């Protein structure tokens, strides 16, 4: 008894819900035409075919390499012309299953337009052995049911005098072949003949240097006094200069920059500290009147 009362009460609610669901509007279109115009045919050129909802054209449309596919329609939500959130023309290769989409240009009034040229179609579809399927998709937010149905078939006619469209292989993510890095070889030293030539020039200039030094008052006799007054500073200063020349020689012959720099910095620090103390000792002898 109670169950019959329950079902008697809920049955009208279920019937009303079913009626509301069945009464939900659906997206569609009206006043739709499709045409293929050849380049140079002018406005309105080409044969027009009328499109109807859920009814595809019986014969495929022919699209040449200089043709343009033109579609005009008015999108509707139920029986009211309205602009949807999205409307596409879907082109699909029935053999490979590859698919691409082109967007309709839609006004607020629902009037939509699409122009599609031969070159705008992906090369994967241009090489199809069978006519590709063209479907219209219309959908938007809300409770209205979307629309998707085949509209016509499109046969792609390529120019026989031109090379066939090249199809690029899609990117596949996976293991790639090993890459062997080839680094640039280390710079080589100059030719030995040039090195010996300039070395001989430097050595030949040394006698001239010592002669000029003696002529302006260089006193070799003060070497003993200098080393006796400050042996460490003079010894380190003279030794660091020779060591720096040795560093440059090693860099020229075998060392690289990263091997040379730390040693040069350390020797340069010794040269600076010992040289300062050695020059102080020389200044003291000058103040004492020793020249």
Key terms:
single chain, alpha+beta, rod-shaped, 291 residues
Structural class: alpha+beta
Relative strand content: 15-25%
Give the helix proportion (percent range). 25-40%
- Distance between the first and last residues' Cα: 137 Å
The poorly predicted ranges are 1-9, 13-22
Order of helices and strands: HEEEEEEEEEHEEHHHH
Tell me about this structure:
The protein has 291 residues and is of the alpha+beta class. The protein is 38% helix and 24% strand. The chain contains 6 helices and 11 strands. The strands form 2 sheets. Strands 1, 2, 4, 5, 8 and 9 form a 6-stranded antiparallel β-sheet that branches. Strands 3-11-10-6-7 form a 5-stranded mixed β-sheet, with no helix packed on it. Helix 4 (222-229) packs across helix 5 (231-253) and helix 5 (231-253) runs antiparallel to helix 6 (257-287). 14% of the residues are buried. Mean pLDDT is 82; it is low at 1-9 and 13-22.
What's the helix and strand layout?
Blueprint: H1 2-22, E1 27-38, E2 48-51, E3 61-63, E4 67-77, E5 80-81, E6 86-92, E7 99-103, E8 105-106, E9 111-117, H2 123-126, E10 132-139, E11 147-156, H3 192-215, H4 222-229, H5 231-253, H6 257-287
Parallel strand pairs: 3-11
Antiparallel strand pairs: 1-2, 1-4, 4-5, 4-9, 6-7, 6-10, 8-9, 10-11
Helix pairs in contact: 4-5, 5-6
């Amino acid at each position: 008894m109670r169950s019959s009362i329950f079902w008697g009460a809920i049955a009208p609610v279920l019937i009303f819900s079913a009626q509301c669901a069945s009464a939900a509007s659906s997206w569609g279109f009206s006043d739709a035409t499709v045409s293929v115009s050849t380049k140079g045919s002018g406005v309105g050129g080409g044969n027009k075919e009328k499109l109807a909802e859920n009814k595809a054209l019986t014969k495929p449309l022919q699209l040449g390499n200089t043709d343009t596919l033109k579609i005009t329609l008015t999108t509707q939500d139920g029986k009211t012309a309205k602009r949807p959130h999205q409307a596409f023309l879907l082109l699909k290769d029935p053999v490979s299953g590859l698919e691409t989409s082109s967007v309709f240009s839609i006004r607020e009034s629902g009037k939509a337009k699409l122009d599609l040229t031969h070159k705008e179609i992906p090369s994967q579809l241009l090489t199809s052995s069978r006519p590709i399927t063209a479907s219209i998709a219309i959908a938007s937010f809300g409770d209205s049911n979307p629309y998707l149905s085949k509209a016509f078939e499109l046969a792609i006619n390529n120019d026989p005098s031109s090379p066939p469209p090249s199809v690029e292989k899609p990117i596949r993510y996976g293991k790639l072949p090993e890459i062997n890095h080839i680094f640039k070889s280390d710079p080589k030293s100059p030719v030995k003949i040039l090195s010996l030539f300039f070395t001989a020039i430097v050595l030949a200039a040394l006698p001239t240097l010592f002669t000029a030094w003696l002529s302006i008052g260089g006193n070799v006799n003060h070497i003993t006094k200098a080393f006796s007054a400050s042996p460490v500073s003079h010894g380190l200063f003279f030794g660091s200069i020779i060591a720096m020349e040795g560093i440059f020689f090693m860099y020229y012959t075998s060392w690289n920059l990263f091997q040379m720099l730390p040693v040069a910095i350390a020797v340069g620090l010794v040269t600076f500290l010992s040289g300062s103390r050695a020059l102080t000792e020389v200044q003291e002898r000058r103040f004492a009147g020793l020249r």
